[in-house]
TrEMBL record:
This is pyridoxal kinase. It catalyses: pyridoxal + ATP = pyridoxal 5'-phosphate + ADP + H(+). Keywords: ATP-binding, Kinase, Magnesium, Metal-binding, Nucleotide-binding, Transferase. Its EC number is 2.7.1.35. The lineage of its organism: Bacteria, Bacillati, Bacillota, Bacilli, Bacillales. The gene is pdxK. Belongs to the ThiD family. Residues 13-259 form the Pyridoxamine kinase/Phosphomethylpyrimidine kinase domain. InterPro entries: HMP/HMP-P_kinase_dom, PM/HMP-P_kinase-1, Ribokinase-like. It comes from Virgibacillus tibetensis. Gene3D superfamilies: 3.40.1190.20.
Amino acid sequence: MTMNKTLTLAGSDSSGGAGIQADLKTFQENDVYGMTALTSIVTMDPNNNWSHSVDPINVAIVEKQLNTILSVGIDAMKTGMLGSVDIIELGAKKIAAYNLDKVVIDPVMVCKGEDEVLQPENTNAMRELLLPLAIITTPNLFEAGQLAKTGPIKTIDGMKNAAEKILELGAKNVVIKGGKALDHEKAVDLFYDGSEFLLLENAKVDTTYTHGAGCTFAAAITANLAKGKSVKEATIAAKEFTAAAIAHGWKLNQFVGPVKHGAYNQTK
Ligand SMILES: Nc1ncnc2c1ncn2[C@@H]1O[C@H](COP(=O)(O)OP(=O)(O)O)[C@@H](O)[C@H]1O
Ligand SMILES: Cc1ncc(COP(=O)(O)O)c(C=O)c1O
Ligand SMILES: [Mg+2]
């Protein structure tokens, strides 16, 4: 038996709903083999409103992990939280050296519930070094505004404008996640491949238990690309997978509610 293999270059969410933890659960649910290169460790302070802190991992250790995984070979990969500019540079170097083409860039800048960019210095490096290597990038509304330098995005026309700018930066495709942040009756994401704008919609769930939704979405795209789907088909499938996970989000403690990564398979 063989399996399609995926890599996630991302951070650890100690609380288990987002980051590498979300990616591995999503890979498993989508029947691909997941390998991990850990970039940073995120912890939350239970005595200070669950405020997040990020401890990046030494770049030499990240490189050892990537060398292990890339010696095996992969069918597709994603990036998530990247920890430092050095790690972004390393990621870009490896993607080029191994000619990796199915590369999903989830340009993580913020965690939900936090109102500041966790590591502002990483935004320019992601824009300049990683977007040109992306088969697709998956910013949320805030991240799309930062990458495209449009400022806050509030409308679907604003999303279209940012999508065009993000393709000019070199990404082959983009899906901007309107999610809960867009003032719209549905949860609307905008997919753009340079020629066609496609709105992906599902019912907006009235919940705050969406921790890890973005990681789950990008990991599901990655898994479907690894299995041979087109970028558009992989994105449509990931939207459905993530919608089910959000519909069954649950309360972990008084601060956070993760999505249920296995809901799509358990409820279909
Ligand atoms: N309340 C919600 N109901 C339904 N879908 C949602 C909701 N919030 C987010 N989504 C969807 O979940 C996916 C991840 O989006 P989002 O939560 O905005 O990303 P991130 O976690 O990176 O901020 C997108 O497909 C988005 O449309
Ligand atoms: C390691 C890590 N990656 C990514 C994220 C972003 O998660 P989301 O999928 O909710 O955007 C978080 C948020 O806590 C995180 O801790
Ligand atoms: Mg996100």
